[in-house]
């Protein structure tokens, strides 16, 4: 422990004895601190290594072991030996004795001095027990480096050239130090001074004691001066040597600096030139990128415009054909009906080709999203082949499915369905005899599907371009087979989007083999192409849809499919009656508008507009019951018109159905998020349009009835309060009539009694008249704003509800806003009654309701606060939604707060609700204070129908 106790001494001096004791309590050491403080005790190497690891970790100092070793050559560690060595020893003796006596303090290792010269030494250490780490090496190096500090010299410079921990045969240390100068001058001076003092006393030059003492001191001083002078010369020589070394280093650094400066100048010149080149290149690239982005934008706009421009006439064609085909067989003979069905199929196929082109463009732009779901490929292909079997039988071909059930794959079913429909329809189209085989297999990673035919095959020069866009591989030379050349390109990009692939092999005249592979598992599902269920409608597949190309090849007898909703038949020249709902039709295409006019005129009173701006003016002026509008129009688009209608209080609730040729989900989401009630894609069935219009009108009528019920409930609440308040003066009036009659009809009339009764009757009548006038002003509404005293309005509402207040309930009032607001008093009173009624319902019989007013800038702030049960956090966002209620079923319509918000918004204000569940609720209503007596308030009801709030305000 004598050589390792420096660890404990250094830690205790640096971090304190209490922390050292705490470490020994927390770590289960096999030896105690008292044992370790005894210098003659021994410890094992594993224990020392564990102790070193713990102390280094607890100190947080990676150099802890080296620093602890440097404290070895001190009085605390060496005791009295420190002073003996300092007075009579030397560094060489210290190193030799440390090595010679190592057996007395180290039983597992052996030191060996391999080289010892002036101020340098090479020392080797071999341990019979392998050390697990370098902590003990660091401790040894620190201990050997500490010996020169005994004489006040700097620690020795110790380096390690090899280490047993790293696999060497021994640890080899190289030491360099500065030897202390011998201090013989002072001792020689002492001896010479004493001798001189004795001689002087013999010669009688002074008293012996005086001469010996004084000359001895003088000799010691002279010797010390000589020693000091020698030490100074030595230091001067060392400093000169260091200065020369520093000057050499400085000159070398100056040379390197000059060289680096020249290199830096050359490098800067190259950087400037390169930067100029990069800047020019970057400018060119940015210009090219901007041009490419502009081309992409123009291409996207082109396809959007093409979609609209092509789908619009197709819509008109399909709607017309559908309308004709819906008529009975007596309208047309068989040849005419056959021609109509052929035209219907051709137009439908043209629409499908346009859709394929747009799908390919979306894939190229990276806008396609996938809806992943597990799919059993074997069952999927079995169902998919059913419609193709009819065509195969018609052509005399065999159509087979080979393979067993495989592991399900995660794919977008609708898009993978389109892939295999394309491949199978191509195989049947290019095969005139033989068979088409669909082969299924799987391995550890992939599910493989091969579509093999015995058709005309593909020429070798066409195999490299078969999946390119708009490429044709019709090797017949006469182009007997139609197509746009985008089918296989769409197949390839769809599979690559699923992290799958496709390849083809073919022999001309013998057939082709299209090999598809799809990855198993879910590792290929990427977030950037994943769509949520809320983003895209689910495809309705009772089994699996028949492909467009198959439908065209099979030439079905049925016309274009239409919704199951049936419209009432009407003669072409029929017109709706005067009580029919009014519908505004906004469409820029005259043909489409004329067709829709013919569809809607028998059932609705029509208003027409040719663009969004005209439609907006007509809607604000005529207030139609419903609006049917196209999206893409000149002057103002349908989306812009929709935003303007939803921001106007007069039309905020008008149902709006948007018509569009854009079938993308983003376009539909944009329209619905702006407030559209429904979205109808072109082409559409007239019966579907009539059904959707009727559904929206029914929803509006349901909202009207619910709003009327809410208003009737509020009226019932007011009349109940009025009846309660008028009962007391009415009883007083009736009770006064009998004494008055007796006083007037008795033989001895009592004028004083009659006057008193008349006064009582007049007082009761005045009270009844005041209550009646208050009730009339309470419920009276107007279209023109008037000055309303908030305090009086709130007092009237509290008075109207006073009959419902339990005896222990308190209503505290604090009115700090004397300024009137310009508003409709009847509507405001309805707001206060609704809010106060909610507060009364929320608190118990001993609760408190606080009603206050204050001014905040240009607004008057009305606060209604209760200490009731509060509102749950999950209900806060839905409070102002129509038909939402936190009460039990049958206790409310859920329109109270919705109508309150609508009334406040109508009067230019704002309403907010703050609640701490379990502690209470505060409702804040802000109303403008600006004095505008000529301001006309928009009506709350539109032809008996309530305007629904614009919830985004």
The order of strands across the largest sheet is 6-8-9-11-10
Q: How many DSSP-defined strands?
A: 25
Helix/strand/pairing category:
alpha/beta
* Bulk shape: flat
Which parts are unreliable, with pLDDT below 50 for 5 consecutive residues or more? Answer: 475-482, 533-549, 551-569, 941-953
Mean pLDDT: 78
Termini separation: 82 Å
**What's the main sheet like?**
5 strands, mixed
Amount of beta strand:
15-25%
- The helical percent reads 40-55%
Brief write-up:
The protein is an alpha/beta fold. 50% of the residues lie in helices and 15% in strands.
Descriptive notes:
The chain contains 27 helices and 25 strands. Helix content is 50%, strand content 15%. Helix 22 links the parallel strand 15 and strand 16 (678-681). The radius of gyration is 52 Å and the shape is flat. The longest helix is centred in the first third of the chain and has 118 residues, at 208-325.
Key words describing this protein structure:
953 residues, alpha/beta, five-stranded parallel sheet, 25 strands, five-stranded mixed sheet, 50% helix, 27 helices
Strands, helices and their partners?
Blueprint: H1 5-15, H2 17-26, H3 33-36, H4 45-59, H5 64-70, H6 75-78, H7 80-88, H8 91-100, H9 102-105, E1 109-117, E2 120-127, H10 135-145, E3 157-162, E4 171-176, H11 184-202, H12 208-325, H13 334-365, E5 372-375, H14 377-395, E6 398-402, E7 409-412, H15 413-429, E8 435-442, E9 446-453, H16 460-463, H17 487-497, E10 501-507, E11 511-519, H18 548-554, E12 582-586, H19 590-600, E13 605-609, H20 612-622, E14 626-630, H21 638-646, E15 656-660, H22 665-673, E16 678-681, H23 686-745, H24 751-779, E17 786-788, H25 790-800, E18 810-815, E19 821-823, H26 825-842, E20 848-856, E21 859-866, H27 896-906, E22 910-916, E23 920-928, E24 941-942, E25 945-946
Parallel strand pairs: 6-8, 12-13, 12-14, 14-15, 15-16, 18-20
Antiparallel strand pairs: 1-2, 2-4, 3-4, 5-7, 8-9, 9-11, 10-11, 17-19, 20-21, 21-23, 22-23, 24-25
